[in-house]
Specification:
Length: about 350
């Protein structure tokens, strides 16, 4: 005779197709993972527009520091410096839309009376996404101008400045990918599994079908084991698919097996919390509310740990785990096993007739 817990697990997994909210959540995660390389570029540009190469930006350059500004703009392939005779001609070109911005540079005496300082007045359009990109390009040109001026005037310094670190050639999306996107994809499945576990238990109680299950005959512990098994296994299965899709998008994820073990441990914790809340309340709404608030509080309180779970996932994914990272993964596994054992002892004392 087949193990009744496996039969219950298969039945619950098959029933997920009717849960529109769960199916929608899975489809959203699938979309994010499948098109991660495109989404990373778009999402990163929302907080760091300089990471995106805009189309050509034409800037009218005028003033006595015109040559210096043109040299700085020449360092950026996406910027075309257009020299104009005076400020009036620059404003005319800007208002007619022939240029996107104006840079006007002039020299003035330094406040201490020693030497001269370079002043640059920048004009950019107001409003719109295009404005953001133009401002970013203007800022980059001014930063280049500042570096050039510092280099040319270095001989006049009384002390040597701190040397700049060498320019890196890493991807501008590296940080976002491994500190935001990957933890999001890895932690959402356990959170959803716990939520589904709440529904799986409370719906049986509210519909009165729990007694029918026990007529199989199976104990309440077997019912809880079957439902928990289905939800716990669902999380690493999703995580494995997301990791494969990330690799398909050119995002390497190291230590996938350790990450899946990590996700399984976290899923066990959330599912146990969901099952116990479902049995304690017996009603879906209050159980879901308590589960959502509780898991968010616990996840937020994880900042008190020596290493936050998101950091653990990121370190494993970028192949830079430490002994502390592995200790955390082992700690989550031990905590999951201990909490599940305690939950089973609690379920053994629950009277099904009282649910």
């Amino acid at each position: 005779m087949a193990d009744p817990r496996l039969a219950i697990a298969r039945r619950d997994l098959a029933g997920l197709r009717r849960e529109k909210t769960i199916v929608l959540a899975l489809l959203i995660q699938l979309f994010v993972a499948a098109f991660s390389s495109f989404l990373v570029v778009g999402l990163t540009s929302m907080y760091d527009p300089s990471s995106v190469e805009s189309g050509g930006v034409e800037m009218a350059v005028t003033g006595e520091a015109q040559d210096e500004l043109i040299a700085a703009a020449g360092e950026h392939g996406s910027v075309e410096a257009v020299p104009v005779e005076d400020a009036d001609a620059a404003r005319t070109a800007f208002r007619s839309g022939r240029v996107h911005a104006i840079l006007s540079g002039s020299y003035a005496d330094a406040p201490d009376g020693e030497g001269r300082i370079l002043r640059v007045r920048a004009t950019a359009p107001d409003g719109g996404l295009r404005t953001t990109l133009v401002v970013v390009q203007v800022r980059q040109v001014l930063q280049t101008l500042e570096r050039q001026e510092r280099f040319e005037r270095v001989d006049h310094l009384g002390t040597s400045p701190v040397p700049l670190p060498p320019a890196g050639d890493g991807s501008p999306y590296f940080g976002f990918t491994y500190t935001v996107l990957l933890p999001l994809l890895l932690f959402l499945p356990p959170f959803i599994s716990g939520s589904v576990a709440v529904d799986a238990v409370t719906e049986e109680i509210e519909r009165g079908t729990l007694e029918l299950l026990r007529a199989a005959p199976v104990s309440l512990v077997d019912v809880v084991d079957g439902k928990s098994l289905a939800m716990v296994l669902l999380a690493p299965a999703q995580a494995a698919l997301w990791i494969l899709l990330l690799r398909f998008n050119g995002i390497d994820v190291a230590h996938p097996l350790v990450l899946l073990a990590f996700v399984t441990a976290v899923a066990t914790l959330t599912v146990v919390i969901g099952v116990v809340l479902g049995l304690r309340t017996g009603r879906r709404r209050p159980a879901q509310l308590l589960y959502s608030v509780g898991t968010l509080v616990v996840f937020g309180a994880a900042v008190l740990l020596p290493e936050h779970p998101a950091t653990t996932a990121a370190k494993l994914a970028v192949d830079s785990p430490t002994a502390l990272t592995y200790a955390h993964v082992a700690g989550y596994a031990v905590a999951a096993a201990a909490l599940y054992a305690l939950a089973r002892r609690y379920v053994e004392r629950v009277e099904p007739e009282g649910l």
